[in-house]
């Protein structure tokens, strides 16, 4: 196979030299020098000889080309332009414009034959990221699996880590927590086997695995991995990488009932990432910090509102629809807690419109908040319809602790309205969503008649 590849490369070099020579109106003897005979030029153009770097450099100058083009067929100027386009597409994706970035990545990949392999890889990873941002998880996962199966992707490299991080994240966002955990654990095991120095890409793989553990309710493994990542991140990682570790560690701590520890961790994350240039990431973290204050018993609602409004301002410019909806829902809860039902209704209605079906528990919870606000505003019939719509959404969701908690909120609202029957139905559904199995009742015993 290497000999066949070498022959094909030689033929390509010879063809491009001939094409450039003819385009310049030159004869083979015009390329000859004291070191390069006319017959040697003929052998090179025929693909029967592979020129050395020095000879190729001389011939490139003679035919008005570059060594890179003659060797690979890729024009350096075009490569520079495509590299610039790729950088802008990646920036658009980071700034929360997946539609714009997808169009750019598709245009770049339309010129794949002119791209260096490393640029093709970056463009395909970006294409998958844009599809993820648009909620097209199946298409994103398909590309990522193709890349993961590519033998040229060296295990442990930055690109390998990026692909595995994206796969773990996409399956988590799609609700397939089992696959997300399996892929994340397999990648972490591979890194341990390789014994490589820990990089920020590897830290991000661990962070995404912690996120999957959190959503699956596997808090013990999540805490163990978080502690391991914290120890490594503190050694030499950037402020952003350390912030991401503290961020996810705070979620695990909150889920385990360690509220004070969770607040300390998320505040540490916010302090580390406040000076970064990733506005979208910082806005999401502010939203998380504000939401945690909102959930705390006796939490600082004033600080929660400030952080959430700052997050909303940034995400209105750079966030996805789901990220904006998440923050607006949290602000609706703040409005409900501070006696502003009109603001709450407006924010909850916006959240319902923004949140996609793949975030089903949040979308259903937004319907509950909207129903509660409408009832407080005196529109009872409309409010109750929103509560019924939320119940129907919860019935369609897979089991998860987040869905169970949100369904319990629905039960609480019905209970406050005095409708105990619908409250009990919501509580029962919440138990089912938590995965709790009912203890089977003993068999009925029939009385034995005594003659």
TrEMBL record:
Species the sequence originates in: Streptacidiphilus cavernicola
HTH cro/C1-type domain segment(s): 17-70
Gene3D superfamilies cross-referenced by the UniProt entry: lambda repressor-like DNA-binding domains (1.10.260.40), Tetratricopeptide repeat domain (1.25.40.10)
Name of the molecule in the record: Helix-turn-helix domain-containing protein
Pfam families, per database record: HTH_3
PROSITE patterns for this protein: HTH_CROC1
